[in-house]
Amino acid sequence: MIVLNSPARGSSVLIVLMLATLGAGCTAGSHDEGRGAAAAEPSTVENRRAAVENEGKKMPPMRAPGEEAVPSQGEGEVPPQLLAIFQDDLARRAQVKHDAITVVSATEQQWSDSAMGCPQPGQMYAQMIVPGYRVVLQANGERYAYHSDRSGTFVVCSNGLAFEPMK
């Protein structure tokens, strides 16, 4: 039994109790609001399996940022003018003529940051999706991976190290 000495103290205790009750009522219903009809427990294994399958159809699974190690590949083609820039760079880099260069692969990419798939130790990069391309060229039996954005900024990525374009 609570004995209150003053009316002011009794009022503040009453207000605290009312707020606690009100808060408990608000949080109890909020957990089930987003579930709608799925809030009721299915009764059989088949019903549970169907409920899980329906939940999966509502929203596709999402990956956490940074979880994807390999950038996604698209079906788009590398613009010919960008491919020519890469071939010019490789001709200077490997000291070969253009006809000695072969295109091994050329794919559209969605890089996870501005490092374009070739981050350097100690460097910071903007964390944003960078649409671009990955082109692998071959000259003199060596392969060179060109990573670029759509505007033509690129690095040559070899063994995890980025090399700037040749001047």
- Give the helix level as a range of percent: 25-40%
N- and C-termini, Cα separation: 87 Å
The tally of helices reads 3
| Shape call | elongated
Number-wise, the strands total 6
Decide which structural class fits the backbone.
Answer: alpha+beta
Radius of gyration: 30 Å
- Biggest pleated-sheet summary: 6 strands, antiparallel
The whole-number mean of residue pLDDT values reads: 74
| Helix-strand string | HHEHEEEEE
Strand order of the biggest β-sheet: 1-2-3-4-5-6
Ranges with pLDDT <50 over ≥5 residues?
A: 28-38, 60-74
Please write out the topology.
Elements: H1 7-33, H2 45-58, E1 72-73, H3 80-94, E2 102-111, E3 130-139, E4 142-149, E5 154-158, E6 161-163
Antiparallel strand pairs: 1-2, 2-3, 3-4, 4-5, 5-6
Explained architecture:
- The chain is an alpha+beta fold and about 170 residues long.
- The chain has a domain at about 70-165.
- About 35% of the residues lie in helices and about 25% in strands.
- The protein is built from three helices and six strands.
- The chain has helices spanning about 5-35, 45-60, 80-95, and strands at about 70-75, 100-110, 130-140, 140-150, 155-160, 160-165.
- Strands 1-2-3-4-5-6 form a six-stranded antiparallel beta sheet, covered by helices on one side.
- A hairpin with a 2-residue loop joins strand 5 (about 155-160) and strand 6 (about 160-165).
- The radius of gyration is 30 Å and the shape is elongated.
- The N and C termini lie far apart (about 85 Å).
